[in-house]
Amino acid sequence: MTGYSNPKILNSRDTVTSNPATGTINEKPLLPPLQPQDINKKCLVIDLDETLVHSSFKPVKNPDFVIPVEIDGVEHQVYVLKRPYVDEFLAKVGEHFECILFTASLAKYADPVADLLDKKKVFRGRLFREACVFHKGNYVKDLSRLGRQLNQTLIIDNSPASYAFHPENAVPVTTWFDDPADTELLDILPSLEHLNGFQSIYDLYRPEEGPNSELLNHCSC
């Protein structure tokens, strides 16, 4: 998010620190059990900033939202732009996946953005900075901590560092700031539909290759 240089917003390490080589952390899952309507659906983890929206402390022309955020006792205005076709994208994936918002931003910013963005309650859960693992200077979204089967879990994110532990589960997207002609969210819908047809997302990989790179590289749709 542009302008978030304040350490209380971006740089505080209020996260789990883990060595992925030692395996997953022994703790309760980040997500509650599946809701009845989501049984047999794959879990789709979706990033927020530069994937669905772009936010800035600096005023922008025609913001979709303006969010007040308190920092050190002072209220600041955050200007939020929605990525083109985000509403259509969320409506579509909400029909076929258990959708989870997972952001490295703090809840005091991301939660009100999600309230305004997700009017139709597509997201079954929201995970914020504290749910990330701080690893080698990055906030990593460890999918093994969700409480979902990894072979039934996908992540959409513009930052490869966010899915560093599970690149084989990733459907990467380009970083978005303000391009009104962007169609990325529409463009990846056929890939998601294709992946949803597999019993396991890892079935997409060729046997001699193994699951070791981003899913979209293997999707022929």
From TrEMBL:
Site, as annotated: Transition state stabilizer: T103, K141
Enzyme Commission number(s) from the entry: 3.1.3.16
Pfam family, one: NIF
PANTHER family (alphabetical): DULLARD PROTEIN PHOSPHATASE
Enzyme class: hydrolase
Alphabetically ordered keywords of this record: Hydrolase, Magnesium, Metal-binding, Protein phosphatase
GO terms for MF: metal ion binding; RNA polymerase II CTD heptapeptide repeat phosphatase activity
Name of protein: protein-serine/threonine phosphatase
Active site per UniProt: D47, D49
Catalysed reaction equations from the record: O-phospho-L-seryl-[protein] + H2O = L-seryl-[protein] + phosphate; O-phospho-L-threonyl-[protein] + H2O = L-threonyl-[protein] + phosphate
Keyword Metal-binding recorded: yes
